[in-house]
Write a structure and sequence with these properties.
Layout (H helix, E strand, L loop, with lengths): L3 H6 L18 H7 L1 H10 L5 H4 L4 H9 L12 H22 L5 H24 L15 E9 L5 E10 L4 E11 L2 H18 L6 H13 L10
Antiparallel strand pairs: 1-2, 2-3
InterPro entries: RNase_H-like (IPR053151), RNase_H-like_dom_plant (IPR044730), RNaseH_domain (IPR002156), RNaseH_sf (IPR036397)
GO molecular function: nucleic acid binding; RNA-DNA hybrid ribonuclease activity
Pfam families: RVT_3 (PF13456)
Length: about 230
Amino acid sequence: LLTNVERTRRGISHSSSCPICGYETEDILYVLRDCSAAKEVWAPVVPFDQQYRFFSGTLHEWLNDNLCSHFRLVGRWTTWSCLFRLVAWRIWKNRNIFVFQNISWPPTEIIKISFGWAQQYGISHMRFQQNDHISDPSASLMDSRVHLFTDGAVARDSEKASVGGVLRDQFGNWILEFNRFLGSYTRFEAKLWGILDGMLLLLSKGFKRGITVLRRVQRLLESEGAVVDSVCS
């Protein structure tokens, strides 16, 4: 990861400090775990009696312990290792959004989105394991059913919105993912734009079955007062 320590080592930055809290050394472990912004995200997720161990150890030990913990979370369709990956990625993404766009998502939003994506993956993976059919690599995806998972979020302080999503085939296999900064939108509009972006991606890849849904989303956006510039023309 291109942290400020790495940027300084490569000679493309003169400061190795954290851009969020100002700590003098921003390495990978500090960004993902030890920064105050990261701790605000991990604290509600990690059980209290496990936090001492979680917030200690080297980078290698920390990653190995958590990525190898495949126990299923109580009441969730996902495992800890899956959730850990997504939360860590969201923390890194939030750091970059803050640096390049001066936008910061609240910890509650990062946690909610991470849990949502982890559960979507867990459900898809479970269905794939239970399915007796084997996906034929030579089969054309254009004739298959695809699943679009999207979400949108609005930063509480700036009211700036971003969307992201992932496309999977009928067997739960990953096809592609996307994310985009929108600007000033409500959370409802952000979620709808996430669906719209996903549909446009489907159409660009030749999935013609998305046309009907796309037109419905366009009408819904227009009914809410959002501007749609002839995306279906």
